[in-house]
Amino acid sequence: MDVALVVMLGASLIILCYSFFKDYRHQGTITQKQVSLICASIMQAYSSYQIPETAIYLFALLPIYFFIFNLKIATLIAFVFLLINLLGSWSGDNQWGSIRFLISGMTSLTFLAILAYVLEYQRNNLYLFATTDDLTGARNRKTMYANLENARQAWLNKQVPSSLVMMDLDHFKQINDQQGHLFGDKVLRTFAEHLMANLDDNEILYRYGGEEFLIIMRQCDQPRAYARAQQLKTSAHEVCLLKLHQQITCSMGVGALYNDENCETWIKACDNALYQAKKDGRNRVIHRAQQEAS
Fold first, then answer.
1. Which of these three, 76, 99, 131, is where a domain ends?
2. How far apart are CA 255 and CA 268, in angstroms?
3. According to the model, what pLDDT value does residue 39 have?
4. Percent of the residues in the chain that have a pLDDT greater than 70, as a whole number
5. SS3 helix, strand, coil % of the chain, rounded to 5?
6. Are 121 and 154 within one domain?
7. How many domains would you assign to the chain?
8. Which residue of 159, 185, 227, 274 has the fewest C-beta atoms within 10 A of its own C-beta?
9. Which residue would you say has higher pLDDT here, 229 or 56?
10. Which residue from 94, 93, 113, 95 is spatially nearest to 105, judged by alpha carbons?
11. Same-domain pairing of 105 and 218
12. Cα→Cα distances 181→130, 176, 236, 264, Å
């Protein structure tokens, strides 16, 4: 029986290690590791019913839960298997040993949960720091192309439309020269904060560079994107006038994704529409069909 248990537990651990190896080779999936870990846990729990002393092997698995599952699920699974092992190891002549096992297990589980929470919090802060423009709070370009490609794949595979809105603050260099860069920074923050407060869940704002911003509008065709851009342009002007006591206008270029064009072509088309809006007198919205027809 001892040999059979060792073989079963060893086999499940080998499967788990193999899934980690495949992940190192960029071939594994998180589901493979989760299934392998659950199998190893079941074998380990079963062994504790046959040989109570093997309950301590759960401590080798506890940290792995928090690497593979999210915090809540990892804590729940670890607690369940801790109780299963406690029941399996409970015996009339060694109840104090089982109690010590429970105390040690709960202490380890609490420590691991706190550690996982702190690490997750720091990881989220690092991700936010790496992907957010520190002046305006808008996203920076690090994740922009990945989201553009996701929108492109949604269009190619499921015909889910997406549109871009490229915008540029009018006469921003003049604002900087006349009122200083600190006021210029305040203009950028006010403008971006207003946009972010008025975007819905399918819209993401990026600072494209300098005084230029870009919005990805998922599940949004060109007519709807054009109407949304008009609304945002008008409301941003009103907010900047109210908060900054300054006439701040912007020009916008709007474009839906066409056919099988790549992300660079998509951005270029919207940039051309933005250039046309500037050329036509600024403080207006031009969509790519208007620009391409001119």
1. 131
2. 10
3. 79
4. 89
5. 70, 10, 20
6. no
7. 2
8. 159
9. 229
10. 113
11. no
12. 24, 5, 20, 31
CB 248 within 8 A of CB 174: no
Residues 196, 278: one domain?
A: yes
243-269 per-residue burial string, b: 16 or more CB within 10 A, e: under 16: ebeeebbbbbbbbbbeeeeebeebbeb
In this predicted structure, the answer to whether residue 37 has a pLDDT above a threshold of 90 is no
| Residue 54 pLDDT level (bands cut at 50, 70, 90) | confident
Select from 5, 43, 36 the least CA-distant residue to 21.
36
121-135 pLDDT per residue, tens: 999 999 988 999 999
Q: Where a domain ends, among 65, 98, 131?
A: 131
Q: 293 exposed, middle or buried (CB, 10 Å; 0-12, 13-18, 19+)?
A: exposed
Instruction: Report pLDDT for 55.
Output: 83
Quickly tell me which residue has 């945002």 as its tokens: 232
Residues 272 and 188 in one domain: yes
CA-wise closest residue to 54 among 1, 109, 108, 111: 1
- Residue 95 maps to a domain: yes
* Catalytic-residue membership of 211: yes
Q: What is the pLDDT of residues 140-172, one digit of tens each?
A: 988 899 999 999 999 999 999 999 999 999 999
CATH number at residue 274: 3.30.70.270
Burial class of residue 121 in the structure, from the number of CB atoms within 10 Å of its CB (0-12 exposed, 13-18 middle, 19+ buried): exposed
Instruction: Report the pLDDT averaged over residues 191-206.
Output: 95
